[in-house]
Model the fold of this input.
Amino acid sequence: MVLLPSILKNESQRHPLLVLQSSLAQSSLPILASILAQEPSVKGSTRHNLLFCLLYQPSSLTQAAASTEVHDWTDRIPGYGQSDYSDELLSIVENALAVPSQATTVIIDSIDTLLEDRESLSEAYKTLARVCEAVKKHPDARLVLHAHAPSRLLPLITQTGFSSALAHITVHPPALLTHLAAEFLMPPPPLSPAPKFWGVFIPVSERVHDTESLVFGPGGEGSGGAGEFVAEVVVREGGAGRKRGVERVLEGWATALGCPCELMELESIQPFAKRHTEHIPSAAPDPTQNLPFNLSLTSSQQESRAQVPLPYAHEGVPITSNAPGAIFYDPDSADDIDDDDPDEDLDI
Done:
């Protein structure tokens, strides 16, 4: 079952915070465009999107619905006019959340640009924390943060202190899975055991520069690729009365269709998935087949075998747990066992 559709729609309001993580090797803007293109009404309430563009132009998200309120702040550069827009951002969010029957999605693109504009890690974190607290007070609102790895803000906003419930989507190029299958013989589950795969995948994927070299280095296909990418989905449940835990899965995204899919449906996964299937050994043949005699026992033969007394010297003697250790030995007819000194005939 694919988790991405339910996470993006947030039908059960279980994930008030959604973090989209991009890199130079792979962009998560198609997922962001899918969120903006959702239906304008949900469960009888109107949907309202607040999009704050700090890095990308609004035209790069051409599928934005009419219910989206766009704030293009890409021209707010430190040193050139007003650059501290924290209070203004929070005021716009609070005004939108003041409508109780309105499902509001607040989208900030990107938090790394916010950090550069604020010129302070603590101040940028405080701004995001204030917005997140305002969103969590609304029963039908969510905060979507777009980040680029490596990012100094990502380790902070993914902590439970920022939000106990979290949906974190990190996009990867398919070349990363191809590299793991070829160099480490570790294709993604279910083609390999999940614990072993994650033990290899997580440290390799966290080396962002190595992933970029797979895409832009010699033999790489460059950004865009085959029009599909891999989404690493980490879901953390939180809140009172809910089962807390962390779930991590890999899913696919077909850019041409603009929707998620099963990982095994990606075209880039098919080659090594097919090779893995071909190398799966068939079931071992039964050595008892096609024999001129029968090696199995019937039920009557098994009963007779169970009634045969075993020739143990201690048979019939109960052995308790506190009994001392002993060796039971049945002397052979050729054994010469006596208490005499075997060397008494020697003149020593």
